[in-house]
Amino acid sequence: MAETMTRSGTLQSGMRIGDDVHYEYEMREALTSDLFAAEEIASPTQPLRFNAALMTLQLTRVGTFEGPFTVDMIGRLKADDYGILRATQLEMEDSGEAE
């Protein structure tokens, strides 16, 4: 079985979890099971919500927090940080298709 691809990066505004704001994140590539699970959370006909649901499954860490992540947590991000995470999702999706 192939190794799961991960990407790390830095959020601009950060994700507030409790009293702390975290900036560093790590995300893994989506597995088919993640797509099925994200569909249970949000319909693919709602692309923003579906992608946020998928993000909650792909995020492995934000700062020292290792989850679980929720759609509400993604919804509280500033648009620039959502864009950073979405770009990471798309980058891994494109890399996976290229392989």
Distance between the termini: 14 Å
What is the average of the pLDDT values? Answer: 93
Overall spatial form = globular
DSSP strand content: 25-35%
Structural class: alpha+beta
Ranges where pLDDT stays below 50 over 5 or more residues in a row are: none
Order of helices and strands: EEHHEHH
Structure description:
The protein has a domain at 30-94. Helices cover 47% and strands 25% of the residues. It is built from four helices and three strands, in the order ββααβαα. It has a three-stranded antiparallel sheet with strand order 1-2-3. Strand 1 and strand 2 form a beta hairpin. The radius of gyration is 13 Å and the shape is globular. The relative contact order is 0.22. The mean pLDDT is 93.
Characterize this entry briefly.
47% of the residues lie in helices and 25% in strands.
Keywords:
99 residues; alpha+beta; 3 strands; 25% strand; globular
How is the secondary structure organized here?
Elements: E1 6-17, E2 20-28, H1 32-41, H2 47-58, E3 59-62, H3 71-75, H4 79-98
Antiparallel strand pairs: 1-2, 2-3
Helix pairs in contact: 1-2
